[in-house]
Request: fold
Amino acid sequence: MDSSFLQLSRPLSVKSTFLNAIRKTSSIYSIPIGRNFQFQRHFKLESSKNGGRKTQREGAFDEAAFEAERSRLDALAMKSMAEASVRDTEGASDDDPKAWKWVIRKRIWDFMESLNIAANPRPVHHRIPNFVGAMEAANRLCDLEVFRDSQCVKVNPDSPQKGVRLLTLMGGKKLLTPQPRLRTGFFSIVESGMLTSATIKEACTSVGVAKYGEPIGLDEKIKVDLIVIGSVAVDPRTGARLGKGEGFAELEYGMLRYMGAIDDSTPIVTSVHDCQLVDDIPVEKLLVHDVPVDIVCTPTQVILTNTKIPKPQGIYWEMLSPEKLSQVRVLRELKRRIERETGKPLPCGPSEKLPPTAQRSSKPGRRASSKN
Reply:
C-alpha cells in the first residue's frame, strides 16, 4: 500500500490544511475516546499488588520533592540542548548531521509557537512539543489494529503522548515507560491492576509512574508489542524522524533490542501535529542509530510510511559520547556487562563538548557503512 501524506512545500509554509487542524484545546480527560477504542475498567478499586509485585515504593513518596528535582534537571537539560544547538550549527557545513537537524527542529518549534499550535509546557523549544489536538492524535493511534492487539506498549514520557499512556492503561494493557532521561534508572512498568479509579490518571504522569510503576532492569523478560515515540519532525513519505536532540529514544530502543524485548518487526508509531510533517529530512544523511517510524498519527489522519529505513540493531558505542555515558547509569551497567561477557573493551565516541572552532573531521557513521 502506498503511503498517504500531505503535499508539503519546501521550506515548510503555512498551508490551509495546517490552519484547519488547529482546534480549541480540550482536556485530556474530557475528550471523547476514539470510536473503535473499547474502554474497559481494568483497574481495581482495592488493589495494592499485582502478581506478587509491589506496586508502590517502600515508605512515603515525597511528591513535591520529586517534581521539584525533575523540573530542575529538565531546566538544566534544556539549557544544555540550547547551548548544543548553537555549538553544533556555528561554522558547521551543510553536511554536518547535527547542524541540519537543529535547523529543522528550530523551524518546527518556532512555527508551533508563532501560530499557538503549541500547548503547555511552553515554550516548546528543546522539547518533544505538546500541541493542540494531541488527544485527537492519541485517539487515532489507539484506533489502530496494532494498538488494539498489543498487550505491552512502550510509550515515551513526554506531554503530547500523555493521552496514549492513559488509553493504554484504560485498555488494560501494560504500559512500559522510560524514567525521564534515564537519569534515575531504566524503565518502569505500570499495570492497570496496580491502580485505583482515583490514581489511573495520575499514573500517566512522571510523578505517577514514580509512585505506581515497578522499575525493571536489563534482565527483565518482557515482550514489547508496540513502540510509541515522540517526534519534533517526521517525513511521512520515508518514516524519517527527528527527536529533540538528546538521543534518548535511540538509547531506549537499543537497550530494548539488547534485552530481546523488540525486533525489526515491532511497529513504531509517532503522534504529531500536522504541521510537524516535513519533506526535507535527507534519508541519506541519517545516522545508523536514528529510529524511523512505521505509522504517523496526527489529529486529522493516519499515515502508513512503508519505511525502508533500517531499524537500529542495538547500541552503537562508537557514537556514544563520554558525557552521555556518564549521565546514564543503566548504560554504564550495560557497557560493563558486555565487556565482561566478551572480554573486550567497547569503543567510545567523541566528546560532545567540542570548542566552537573545532574541525569536525571525523564523520559519524552513516547507515550504508556503519556496523554495530
Remarks:
- Residues 1-33, 35-56, 354-364, 368-372 have pLDDT under 50 and may be disordered.
- DSSP finds ten helices and twelve strands in the chain.
- The radius of gyration is 20 Å.
